Amino acid sequence: MIKKVAVIGGGPAGMIAAATASNRGKEVYLFEKNDKLGKKLFITGKGRCNITNNCDIEDLINNVVSNKDFLYSGFYSFTNKNIIDILNRYGVETKVERGNRVFPKSNKSSDVIKALEKYMIDNKVKINLNKEVTQIEKTDKSFIINFKDSTIETFDKVIIATGGVSYKQTGSTGDGYTFAKNFGHEIKEIKPALAPCEIKEAWVKELQGLALKNITVTTYVNGKKVFEDFGEMLFTHFGISGPLVLTMSNYINDYRNNTIKISIDLKPALDDKQLENRIIRDFEKYSRKQFKNSLNDLLPKKIIPIIIKLSEIDEDKFVNQITKTERKNLLNILKNLEMTFDRFRPINEAIVTSGGISVKEINPSTMESKLIKGMYFAGEVIDVDALTGGFNLQIAYSTGYLAGVNC
Ligand code: FAD
After folding, report:
1. pTM over cut 0.85
2. I need a labelling partner for 12 at 20 to 30 A (CA). Which of 62, 103, 118, 264 fits?
């Protein structure tokens, strides 16, 4: 008899799982509580969807932060090329940007969602929207699924692909954790990953809206360096965000209660001597101007008042009166603009959820629960997470594929 499979969640993990299982001859029903598929997918990559990363499989694995070994089988079974092939087949042309990030040529995440929907329809998945699962029960041979609309249906297998708990408005409200917990699964502590940071120093808020490119961020926990990278960041009304900061957040996640200092090198292309020469040149050019009018060639306008304040040089002082010590002070601030981490923004503002269903209780080659036969997990609901660059979506597709093939 044809096996009946329920896939809970119409995100990337659920959609790939459903199409794959259906393609292998199962009768597949996908249940999504929203009135449309892929609400979170829609907002990925600022609406452009960083589909995956065009790197080697080993690099896909290296960019996973939690439980990378668990993903070997998934990444090798369903690769970045596989998802690109499917999307290409369904009319989404792709392009590769900085850092091997893959995007749709149209820059529209909605095109990715449409393609995945079509992929499911072609594979005869029965898509059910506005259908929220409230409870899963198990008899000897089957799963009984209860829905919010008070209906009940029976299935041979169930794939839980309900996502994490960040950006709850997209539908990812952590239901899968409850379902799994009710069956005895351990849920590893839920924490924000790829999260913006609140900063203690009040001056940071004055920089709200300023995006810095080509800078280096170095982070120290109790004086020990834990992170350093080059790229872009953004100042916000609460502190800092942007690609570099989101990546950094993963490196300080376990040290949240320690003293964490974040240092920005505003001029990483210049060493101390080169920067000193540069400042001297600018100071010669503006020798008859006041200090506050001498930094326009060197820095974005918005940050100048802050740098002046931190340098403790009188802003009205004429440049030709600035002492060597004061100049050195300025140089130090440009190379080491230091701030203190306060806390992460709430988990709802994190890009991904770290923690979730313990990987120890899931077979990494099949995604089947080691505790409950016939129950599978896929995507962010599992205790896996990765850096920015398309890796988290690749986790969703690869684990979804394994669940779909093996159910
Ligand atoms: P989700 O996408 O969260 O999907 C789960 C689905 O399950 C939801 O549609 C939800 O409504 C449904 N559901 C939940 N409970 C139930 C229930 N009880 N009954 C029925 N349905 C239910 N990753 C990248 O790789 N590239 C990016 O560019 C990127 N950008 C991001 C930008 C933002 C702002 C955010 C928040 C995340 C971004 N991510 C990105 C991360 C990525 O979106 C997620 O890791 C990925 O969507 C997880 O897929 P999933 O299918 O496991 O879960």
Report:
1. yes
2. 62
Q: Please report the atom of ligand 1 found closest to the CA of residue 166.
A: 36
32 CA to centre of ligand 1 in angstroms? 12
Statement: residue 348 has pLDDT above 90: yes
Provide residues with CB under 6 Å of ligand 1: 8-14, 31-34, 39-41, 43-45, 49-50, 132-133, 161-163, 166-167, 171-173, 175, 351-352, 379-380, 390-393, 396
What pLDDT is recorded for position 143? 98
Kindly state the tokens that stand for 302: 């918005």
346: which DSSP letter?
Answer: P
What is the average pLDDT value for the chain, to the nearest integer?
Answer: 96
Pocket probe for ligand 1: among 16, 31, 44, 132, the residue whose CB has the most ligand atoms within 8 Å is 44
Neighbours of 193 (CB within 10 A): 26
Query: Is the model's pLDDT at 136 over the cut of 90?
Result: yes
Q: Looking at residue 215, what is its pLDDT?
A: 97
- Angle in degrees, CA 21, 78, 17, rounded to 5: 25
Query: 3-state DSSP call for residue 334?
Result: helix
Residues 189-212 have a mean pLDDT of 95
CA distance 302 to 52: 35
Q: Which of 319, 267, 326, 329 is nearest to 293 (CA)?
A: 319
Residue predicted with more confidence, 54 or 256: 54
Distances from the Cα of 247 to the Cαs of 33, 219, 229, 311, in angstroms? 31, 11, 9, 29
Give the separation between CA 347 and CA 363, rounded to whole angstroms: 28
| DSSP-assigned letter for residue 191 | E
pLDDT cut 90: percent of the chain above it = 96
Nearest in space to 171 (alpha carbons), one of 42, 313, 296, 20 = 42
Q: Residue 365: which pLDDT band, with cuts at 50, 70 and 90?
A: very high
Q: Are 50 and 375 in contact (CB under 8 A)?
A: no
